[in-house]
Design goal:
heterodimer; A: 273 residues; mainly alpha; two-stranded antiparallel sheet; 77% helix; globular; B: 334 residues; alpha/beta; Rossmann fold; Alpha-Beta Plaits; 2 domains; 6-stranded mixed sheet
Chain lengths: 273, 334
Amino acid sequence: MMKRKLKIYLPFVNAGIQEVATYRVNWIFFMLGNAIACFVSYFIWAAVYSSGGEESMNGFTMPQMVVYIVLMFLTSTIIASDGAYVVGEEIRDGTIATRLIKPVSYNATFLFQELGNKLPTEIAIAVPMIIVVEIARTVMSGEVQFNALNLLLYILSCVAAYLINFYFNICFGFLAFVIKYLWGANMMKNCIIGFLSGTVIPLSFLPDALERVFLFLPFASLNYTPVMIYMGKYSGAELCYYLGLQVFWVLFFFGLSKGLWKASVKRLTVQGG
Amino acid sequence: MIYVDKLRKEFKKTIKDPGLKGSIKSLFKPKSEKVVAVSDISFEVPEGEILGFIGPNGAGKSTVIKMLTGILTPTSGTCTINGKNPTENRKSYVKEIGVVFGQRTQLWWDLPLRETYGVLKEIYEVPEDSYKKRMAFLNEVLELDSFITSPVRTLSLGQRMRADIAASLLHSPKVLFLDEPTIGLDVVVKDNIRKAIEYINRQEKTTVILTTHDLADIELLANRIVMIDKGSNVFDGTIGELKTKYGQIRELCFETDSPNAAQALGYEKHFGFGEDELSLEAEGKTVKVRFNSSVVPVSDMLSYTLDKINVSDISVKDADIEEIIRRLYKQGVE
């Protein structure tokens, strides 16, 4: 059963890979943009630390902050999902019709196509960046900090984070059944998530009560958890708790997307032609 | 094979007053109204038949096709195809049908055409050897060879349509839905596509539902016509029946030197034509008379006309299907 399913959806991965190859330049610009944002973030924090005068703020030293920024950048690239945009567009322009006439699961085709889109780029970015981070960490602290177990857990955590992000975005995309055009809602969503997931500021910088709420929300499971795991900030029971929370959110959004799909496909009005 | 019973589909449509002011108003206080796209459609299609499904723009054809293919859920009414309800178990249902939307493509836009077929092969679980045979067959019928390695976005419309039709046939479906498969194509490509559809229908007893605005498609392909307008059935029968029912119109065309010949002839008075049974059109020397030949036989009209005035050139034309349909679309039937 599993094998048969894989055989159906693997071609979507393959097709996804080939699609990226078509639009290489687009991808390069996208990465450049991200890198610039990463540098801006670095200079802001450098200014904060140099004016604050303290060596460590909320458990982060400046070198750790640099690692945090770079890992955040890496993680958000790895777990990025276009689902909301793609689903919204397909609903808006009616292309969804051509997907519905195929004997495949709507969500699964997206998942596998996107995996194909992402896999080559992820490997191409992640490997050199991890190496750079490790070299930088070693140089800055004077000792080797690399931990293979943390790296492995980080990868697992990223897989979970991607699945949460994917199904969350699919759910969000189904909003297009109601409001038809998602561009504005999408922008708003991205800003809020940027804050809630700790991409802008580490969640430990927030007031305690707020931090606890944010940590439970699914968005912390997106970027924050994998990065904290990589940096070795979680261990033992805490580590299990956060990984478990991630699994919970994966299942939650997976179920929600199924339910929403069933409910909203009945409302479908194919626009145009 | 296909049973459609009292199918109905309503949409909610938001209405907006014109201009920026209207947009702002509708942002805060959206108004919507119910639109009935399809109100009460019933028909049946036996296995192996090609059904021409026609109607003017906005009649609800595409909506019906989308309900039959499981994309839209009917508001009420049922359709059963191959013993299955399209919306109830979409995945198993769509395995048995092929669909082509002339205005959209189901091919992978950025990939070489061949890749799309590779993906479809896995989706429909076509075994390797039958896939090879099938591709060879489709290649022969639709001539895909010359562009099968090109990315789909570089194909011409005619190539793309042939490729789309091949994609819909790869898994040997029992029912084929073609929504305007000849839209925007040149005469030669149209001809190829018609031949391919006919050939596949004959070879494999595929049931075909075809919507089109090109009546030549209908005349050459369809065994039967279902015509709808404003969401309901208008006509259901063979082309022959359509012609006998609405097609008793003949056109008598002649040239004459007599001034005001048409009035001088006084057909209405002489033969007692009713309303809608006669129309006259005079342009210079040429006079065109359209009349219902079941009221007055052609021979009577001819001899009467020739007796009355001097005629230099005269011809009688059969009403073609296009003329009939034009009349039907214009007046909405009966």
